[in-house]
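Priority: low. Protein: Malic acid transport protein. Input follows.
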Amino acid sequence: MGAFVASGPPGFTALALINLGRSAKEILPRYNLVSPMAGEIFYAASVMSALLLFGLAVFFFAFGASLLVQASQVPA
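Result:
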């Protein structure tokens, strides 16, 4: 069951990146810190990075599931 632990951190990091991008999209134009388009660009980059991290989490989950299936098979 310990093989599933590896899928947690990439998933939570992906969620954090999406939330940071959403906040940047709202905060950066409001306070005129940079160009208003910078918030949109940061949001798009964070969503793409989050998708990559989510794919890594899915890979780790599939790897853990395959280990679990392999360990549960009774040898003939």
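The first helix runs from residue 8 to 30. The two ends are 24 Å apart (CA to CA).
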